[in-house]
Amino acid sequence: MLKKQLFGNLNFVSFSLLFILISLVSFFNPPEKGLAATPQPGDTQTITLFDGPFFNFLPLITIQNLQPSSGYVLLGWNDLGMHCYNRDFKDLAVLPPYNTLWAQVIQRGDPPQIVTSNIKVEYSFPNNTYSVGKSNFWTYAQSLFNLSGPLSENIGLTGNGLSGEMDAKGDHFSVDGIPLTEFQDSAPTSAYPYQLAEIIAKDINTGRELASLTVVAPVSTEMRCVNCHFDGNIDSISTGGIETNILTLHDQENAYKYPVDHTTPLMNRRPVLCAECHASNALGLSGQPGIPSLSRAMHEKHKEIVPNTQEGCYNCHPGPTTKCLRDVMSTEHNMTCIDCHGGLEVVSQNPNPWLNEPTCSQSGCHTDITQNQALYRNSTAHAGIYCAACHDSPHAIAPSNQVNDGIKFIQLQDSPGPLSKCTVCHITQPAEVDIHTTQ
Q1: What pLDDT, on a 0 to 100 scale, did the predictor assign at position 134?
Q2: What is the pLDDT of residue 30?
Q3: Does residue 298 contact residue 317 with C-beta atoms inside 8 Å?
Q4: How much is the pTM?
Q5: What residue ranges do the domains of the chain occupy?
Q6: Nearest-angstrom CA–CA distance, 303 and 308
Q7: Contact 194, 171 (CB under 8 A)
Q8: In the beta sheet, which residues pair with residue 167?
Q9: Number of neighbours of residue 374 by Cβ within 10 angstroms
Q10: What gap in Å lies between CA 280 and CA 95, rounded to an integer?
């Protein structure tokens, strides 16, 4: 008996000492809750509660975070998977700061219902609350876009800011033209392309919060014109600036065919919006008659210069640092930009760029799936849920290799995407169904 009691006491002392040791470690090395140190572009990370020599805990997801405990679920995503804008606007502009978020609100049930009535969805960027000072776009916006007056600070071309209310649009909510930059408030000089938005669904009458979600709004200025257009590299042009080198070259090669009312050399008309002459579906601008679209002009001009590889695409699209192609097709199936879009020659022949893009069933991939819209980003299935709501944005199809892309899925189902847990929206597990049916 004495031996047993002694053994029990020793066990108690051992566990007590272990508890004290863990407490001391935690006290002198307090854990960072939530996301670990801000990941750098292209990094992959694990979200941990504790990160130390003793423990590696599961992602920080509390009962309060898990949406299915409430009567509503909020799904959210970015429309394109990446938005680009110029780092400097004083000489030329390809794209302005212009981001977009979409959302659907689901009332849980058997069956669940998509709802937009008597509900509002708000958005904000807790660590990116201003853009003026992070970009000089507001200095040149009036001239570039022929505005009647200066663009208000931190307001985008559509009148939206970095926080506000999304528009209800039939079966979803969206906000277009968010003037988001790639710089966080906490690090305003360090590019961070996978910005985080907080979206919240509320009862429009009472203001009661119904559901919330953390969504990536991807944004980058990584257009590497400098790889070719540095001083002295092309036709001995050396103006001291990458953009002015490009404009000078454009004048030399094309001035004789500039359209009427646009005959002034570009170098004398700065800042220049490329879409003023070259049509851009991305901006909804029709350009000038007889001038090729911006997409056609760029891909046609560079098809003999830039290789048809992912690295080649990253000369202009973000980029070897940003790595905007980060989805499951690239990480698990070794697919590149070329597998879906084709090479530069193929892309240059697209008659309607941005609005005529690859489908999921092309190239013998998902042959059992037919999109009900021309574009994946506009397609729905499974009783009206947008494909991107479950699978995420183009170029970021889940699971992505970026930790931020996975946060919303962990909030929804306590595991990375795609969204596959039926009881996120259904109260009870439904019988087996074809989740990709368009009905």
Answers
A1: 98
A2: 41
A3: no
A4: 0.84
A5: 67-221+369-424, 225-348
A6: 8
A7: no
A8: 174
A9: 13
A10: 10
Spatial distance between the Cα atoms of 287 and 375, rounded to a whole number of angstroms: 23
Which residues are registered as beta bridge partners of 75?
A: 104
Phi then psi for residue 272, to 5 deg, are -110, 130
- Choose from 15-19, 86-90, 354-358 the range with maximum mean pLDDT: 86-90
Task: Check if the beta carbon of residue 159 is closer than 8 Å to that of residue 167.
Answer: no
Q: For residue 208, give both structure tokens.
A: 């009661």
User: Are the C-beta atoms of residues 381 and 360 closer than 8 Å to each other?
Assistant: no
* pLDDT, tens digit (0-9, with 9 covering 90-100), for 257-279: 999 888 999 999 999 999 999 99
Tokens of 276: 């003023």
Map residue 323 onto helix, strand or coil. coil
Nearest-angstrom CA–CA distance, 428 and 413: 15
User: What are the phi and psi torsion angles at 376 (to 5°)?
Assistant: -55, -45
Contact 103, 76 (CB under 8 A): yes
Confidence band for 156, pLDDT divided at 50, 70 and 90: very high
Q: Which residue has the tokens 């030329």?
A: 92
Q: Which two tokens stand for residue 372?
A: 């009900």
